[in-house]
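Structure record:
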Amino acid sequence: MSLFTDASPISGPRRLRELLARQEPTLAPGAFDALSARVVEAAGFDAVYMTGFGSTASLLGQPDVGLLTEHEMMDNARRIAQAVNIPLIADADTGYGNPLNVIRAVRDYEQAGVAALHIEDQVSPKKCGHMDRKHVIPRDEMVGKIRAAHDARGADGILIIARTDARAMEGLGAALDRAEAYRDAGADLLFVEAPQSVDEIEAVARRLKGTPLLFNWAEGGKTPPVALADLAALGFNLIIFPISLLLAATQAMQAAAAAIRNDGSPINLVPTLPSFQQFTDFIGLPQVKAVERRYGVEEW
């Protein structure tokens, strides 16, 4: 959606609830900025996911170890939500503090146009869920944060996704106990991070059957790759792919930089790239020109 197209109803929590009620899982590739979100939408996906891992890499050039603030994450989410017309699911890390901070984060994300956010039970500063040496807060403390998130949202407001990282420290059984407690506290979806085998993935689906479930498909992480058909059969409702576009973009940029360095110019890259006009058309220049004509702005 271009900033300069006619305003249309913003897809949000209601649309996401409709998607999650379908028989098949909703797929949400990870976007790290507004441009990558538009790529996801243009590819025909029904939802997009703002990755904290990718946001940190893009904004800071650093790993996902709790370096971005709530304001930086929410600001990135706002730009992404304004760039597309499909529901945005966003990483909200630990909620950025105690229940009071969670209340503010939920309201900020909701006002930014986010359809769903996930809050995790890690100790702050957190780490990527597939890194080692994580720590989690007490279960009851996280229950309070989920209750605060549930109570803070509007009547038809943002969906609350409760993520537990306890598998790495306390084992799968404890992680499932936590997930059930978070569901009872008001979470709309459950996200058990980093199960380490197909058997564990199946145990998650079996134990939490009847509650909407999120599966994190992270290349090279602790969770093995699983086919879409298998995840659908297990009953996962939402599947996110947080780093696919980030890895592909990084590889493409590295190759392009190396080619320019070796050749002294992009001359050999040009045949493999979108043209300047194709790219400007993709990011909405025709809509800008239409608005200029409408309001009498002088032609370029």
The beta strands are 26-31, 48-50, 88-91, 116-120, 159-164, 189-192, 214-216, 238-241. The two ends are 23 Å apart (CA to CA). The chain has a mean pLDDT of 94. The domain at 13-249 is CATH 3.20.20.60 (TIM Barrel).
